[in-house]
Amino acid sequence: QVQLVESGGGLVQPGGSLRLSCAPSGSIFSINVMGWYRQAPGKERELVAEITSGGGTNYADSVKGRFTISRDNAKNTVYLEMNSLKPEDTAVYYCEAKVQYYWYSPILRSWGRGSQVTVSS
User: Fold this and answer.
1) What does the buried/exposed string (b/e) look like for 7-25 if buried means 16 or more CB atoms within 10 Å of the residue's CB?
2) What is the side-by-side strand order in the sheet with 77-82?
3) Of 13, 7, 11, which is closest to residue 86 (Cα–Cα)?
4) Which DSSP letter does residue 43 get?
5) pLDDT per position as a tens digit, 54-91
6) Within a 13 Å sphere around the CA of 39, how many CA atoms are in the beta-carbon half?
7) Which terminus of the chain faces fewer neighbouring Cβ atoms within 10 Å, N or C?
8) Residue 27 binned pLDDT confidence (cut-offs 50, 70, 90)
9) Nearest to residue 119, comparing CAs of 93, 89, 94?
10) How high is the pLDDT of residue 2?
11) Which of 4, 6, 10 is nearest to 91 (CA)?
């Protein structure tokens, strides 16, 4: 069964940087909008950034100017470059995408399992 897989999380000091990656674990027919969400302890899951297949982007105000989302359509991969990280960025980051696994399949909203990002001194 194909699923989204995130990588690149970890522990980083305030002001540091990390890059997250996300891609399907197997072959797919098509993939459309891709994005990143995050959820901190005791808080609701929130949209961090999203990107269309054509490259259009949208960012949460809290990360605008610090984070950059990008994608490689040939690899079906989405990236999130996180710079100038702050302790309040600490959360589990989830990859999300609209995926069609076969030509005859419906388009599904798919999620990764999440990647922990901890910003602490």
Assistant:
1) ebbeebeeeeebebbbbbe
2) 4-7, 18-24, 77-82, 67-72
3) 13
4) S
5) 899 999 999 999 999 999 988 999 999 999 999 999 99
6) 10
7) N
8) confident
9) 89
10) 65
11) 10
